[in-house]
Amino acid sequence: MKVGGRFDIGQLADSLPEPLASDVRKIEAELTDEEKASKRWTLTWLEGKPTVELDNGPTLRG
After folding, report:
1. Using CA atoms, how far apart are residues 30 and 20, in angstroms rounded to an integer?
2. Which of 5, 22, 32, 53 is spaced 20 to 30 Å from 47 by Cα?
3. Which alpha helices (H) appear in 1-62, and where do they start and end?
């Protein structure tokens, strides 16, 4: 079992696979400064697969 967690914009979780990390970076590049300061990512693992969700934003599945 892997434990997820929360992380800030620009601070990718170490356990995030590169293809998903690349998608996270693309989304972060489109955020406003206000969004970057106020939003965080949530990383969860389901059956060994990562899911990241931006506060009130998109959800990405690995």
Report:
1. 16
2. 22
3. 18-29, 33-38
Check residue 62 and give its pLDDT.
87
CA distances (Å), origin 24, targets 5, 33, 38, 54:
15, 16, 16, 9
Instruction: From 31, 54, 34, select the one nearest 42 (Cα to Cα).
Output: 54
Which tokens hold the place of 20?
């998903």
Nearest to 10 by CA among 34, 33, 36, 45: 36
Angle, alpha carbons 21-27-29 (nearest 5°) = 105
Handedness of CA 17, 19, 53, 61 (dihedral sign): negative
Per residue in 37-52, pLDDT tens?
Answer: 999 999 999 888 999 9
